[in-house]
Write a structure and sequence with these properties.
Layout (H helix, E strand, L loop, with lengths): L1 H11 L3 E10 L2 E8 L2 E8 L6 H14 L7 E5 L2 E5 L15 H18 L6 E7 L2 E7 L2 H18 L3 H13 L11 E3 L8 E4 L2 E5 L6 E3 L1 H12 L5 H12 L12 H19 L4 H22 L1
Antiparallel strand pairs: 1-2, 2-3, 3-5, 4-5, 6-7, 6-11, 8-11, 9-10
């Protein structure tokens, strides 16, 4: 793949050099590079579910439209992008401690992202890459976009024998269109604002990276998508700090807490896809994890129905 990266860089930069590989987990690869004398990062797709082009476009959009610190985008193509090196960017696979200081600052940073994009995002749905920028192939209502979100993950689940659980969630959402009443307007959701992707310096977000999961959705989608992998029963004070930080910038909508199980279920559907696409476990452990995910979604559907 290194040769392919070199050819891509050669097309757009007078001088270029690959310094080292930073990350290699399907469906993306990341390299530290030098382009035209500037220290930079290349991120490109290595699989069909890769979204580096979208990530580059969303990152550029956030940099232009908000005060949230993100790397400067130097180039975006359909399947890769090049960003200027950001000194405060989190290192891949190494997150900051998830303490109350990080949580409070990240809550404020995420709420700022949502607040400052609320007036420029008009529809709910997936971002699409188009000629180096992003568009939204979206919906006027979040319930329709949420259905589309599950359907977009269905092919991977079907390929690995879990189409029944995807269809069960699709059926539930179709039969309960009022589930997402009062969720709020569409905003740019980062999609994975965990310590691996959000750096905090001096009690403020210093850099937010990896917008590969970005989506135009209600802010609460992003809120719970952050909380799920970041906080557990042992970190209640930290999660409360995250909420205080968020609410210091942006109010949470009526019914917010009651809708948590729905967002947990949506995220579990994504976890199925991630489990197989990233392929970081042996067959036995993958099967065990998939079974636990299936049990969790089934149990949640039973409680919600």
């Amino acid at each position: 793949m290194k040769t392919t990266v070199e050819k891509k860089l050669e097309k757009h930069f007078a001088s270029h050099r690959i310094v080292r590989q930073l990350h290699d987990v399907p469906p993306h690869e990341v390299y530290e590079v030098s382009v035209d004398g500037r220290r930079a990062v290349y991120k490109g797709d290595t699989g069909l579910t890769g979204s580096a082009g979208i990530e580059g476009g969303v990152t550029a959009f956030v940099g232009q439209q908000t005060s949230v610190p993100v790397p400067e985008i130097l180039l975006t193509e359909d399947d890769y992008y090049v960003a200027a090196w950001h000194p405060d960017a989190p290192t891949p696979d190494e997150g900051q401690p998830t303490d109350e200081g990080w949580a409070y600052a990240t809550g404020r940073g995420l709420a700022t992202l949502h607040t400052e994009t609320a007036n420029v995002i008009e529809r709910y749905g997936q971002f699409r890459s188009q000629n180096g920028s992003v568009t939204i192939s979206g919906y006027d209502e979040w319930d329709a976009a949420a259905l589309d979100y599950v359907r977009s993950h269905r092919p991977v689940l079907a390929r690995h024998g879990h189409v029944d659980i995807a269809d069960a969630v699709i059926d539930f959402l179709s039969e309960h269109p009022d589930t997402f009443e009062n969720t709020g307007e569409p905003v740019c959701c980062h999609g994975w604002a965990t310590p691996e992707h959000v750096a905090v310096v001096n009690d403020r977000v210093a850099c937010m990276v990896d917008s590969e999961h970005a989506i135009a959705a209600p802010g609460e989608f992003d809120y719970w998508r952050t909380c799920m992998p970041t906080f557990d029963s042992r970190s209640e004070n930290t999660e409360r700090a995250f909420r205080r930080g968020y609410e210091s910038i942006r109010s949470l909508p009526r019914g917010f807490d009651d809708r948590k199980p729905i967002y947990v279920m949506l995220n579990l559907i994504y976890y199925f896809e991630s489990l197989y696409v990233q392929d970081q476990h042996g067959p036995g452990e993958t099967a065990e994890r998939a079974e636990r995910l299936q049990d969790s979604v089934t149990e949640m559907l039973e409680k919600l129905s």
